[in-house]
Design brief:
It contains four helices and three strands; from the N terminus they run E-H-H-E-E-H-H. By secondary structure, the chain is of the alpha+beta class. A three-stranded antiparallel sheet has the order 1-3-2. Strand 2 (36-38) and strand 3 (41-45) form a beta hairpin. The protein is globular and about 30 Å long. The two termini are 17 Å apart.
Length: 74
């Protein structure tokens, strides 16, 4: 799923990272998660998400964001 998309919704990111949307909203408000706003719509660029996860200690190098199948194994 992530491999094909350049921009993701907060709901998609929350589901795949298994964290709450409220955590993502808080992180975007504090500037920890860069987002793009289109009116009321919020989108996250894949590269910004990879940096966000890397800073949290979840990735060893950029470009390793797991796809949907890899997340379901755990």
């Amino acid at each position: 799923m992530f491999a094909e998309k350049e921009f993701l919704t907060l709901a998609e990111v929350a589901q795949h990272l298994r964290i709450s949307r409220s955590k993502l909203y808080a992180d975007q408000r504090t500037g920890n998660l860069p987002v793009l706003r289109f009116g009321r719509l919020i989108r996250i660029r894949r590269e910004d998400l990879e940096r966000y996860v890397q800073r949290a200690g979840g990735l060893k190098k950029p470009g390793e964001l797991p796809g949907k199948q890899q997340l379901r194994r755990s």
